[in-house]
Amino acid sequence: MTVIAAESLDAVAAELGAGPLDPALTRRTIVLRGAEVDTLVGSEFTLDSGDGPVRFRATRAANPCRWMDVVLAPGAFRALRRRGGIRCTPLTDGVLRRGPVTFTVDRAAETA
Predict the structure, then answer these.
(1) Per-residue model confidence (pLDDT) at position 36
(2) What residues form the membrane-spanning segments (predicted)?
(3) Is the pLDDT of residue 77 over 80?
């Protein structure tokens, strides 16, 4: 499962002079706004969209591929480096729905 920050896509669009970028084209599973996603590697976090919390462990960066230059905008591959999102392992089962979520980072899990 992968997660990307909407702000990363906004910044790339601004840098490249492109219109709004479609997050679905990044092939990331979840798009969050207001979370510093790329800093979460090694952390555990929880998302709750109203049906109960779903817990994840951020395992590594989700590096972009050159295909981003084709589907998003020329130059997107390089522009997304170090802000292409994260790969995660689900730790619990649950349901996530489109719309607002509660996002919580477990800082205790980072030091364990």
Answers:
(1) 95
(2) none
(3) yes
The alpha carbon of residue 112 and the mean position of all alpha carbons in its chain are separated, in whole angstroms, by 23
Q: Give the model confidence (pLDDT) of 42-52 as tens digits.
A: 999 999 999 99
Task: Give me 5's structure tokens.
Answer: 């920050």
Nearest to 55 by CA among 93, 22, 83, 85: 93
Please name which of 39, 30, 41, 40 lies closest in space to residue 6, comparing C-alpha atoms: 30
Nearest CA to 53 among 96, 99, 87, 3?
96
Task: Report the distance separating Cα 93 and Cα 69, nearest Å.
Answer: 34
Global pTM reads 0.90
H/E run at residue 71 = helix 67-71
| Domains assigned to the chain | 2-107 (2.40.33.20)
H or E element, residue 80: none
**Helix intervals (H) in the chain:** 6-16, 67-71, 76-79, 107-111
